[in-house]
């Protein structure tokens, strides 16, 4: 009997930097060419926290320390590739140099209100700052 199909798990990061938020310009579909939060799929054997830190390093060149959970985003329609659930963290930079690589055409610290964000990332950014302690 095959295993039931379940949502895929991703981890994303909101990183305030230089008066903006670190965003990547997506190299691949969906939302190719649009700005989005750094993040990606969790590998088997990896925690969501490890995935968040790894994806930040791979896509932006930055090392981060996760500060707190922003939220879990599980709307089945949030990703055109299928039902993906994202665990999102607020982080702070602890090292590295900002540069786009891996799945990112480009990486920059931008005002998230000044660009169109893919997925539900505009809502996630708002949540990250509205929920600040």
UniProtKB/TrEMBL annotation:
Q: State the coiled-coil residue ranges.
A: none
- Keyword annotations for this protein? Hydrolase
Highest taxon of the source? Bacteria
**Listed Gene3D superfamilies:** Nucleoside Triphosphate Pyrophosphohydrolase (3.90.79.10)
- What's a Pfam family this protein contains? NUDIX
Note whether Metal-binding occurs among the keywords. no
Q: Which SUPFAM superfamilies match?
A: Nudix
Give the family per the record: Belongs to the Nudix hydrolase family.
Q: Which residues form the Nudix hydrolase domain?
A: 6-133
Q: What is this protein called?
A: ADP-ribose pyrophosphatase
> One MF term in GO for this entry?
hydrolase activity
Species the sequence originates in: Rubrobacter radiotolerans
Q: InterPro entries in the record, alphabetically? A: Nudix_hydrolase, NUDIX_hydrolase-like_dom_sf, NUDIX_hydrolase_CS, NUDIX_hydrolase_dom
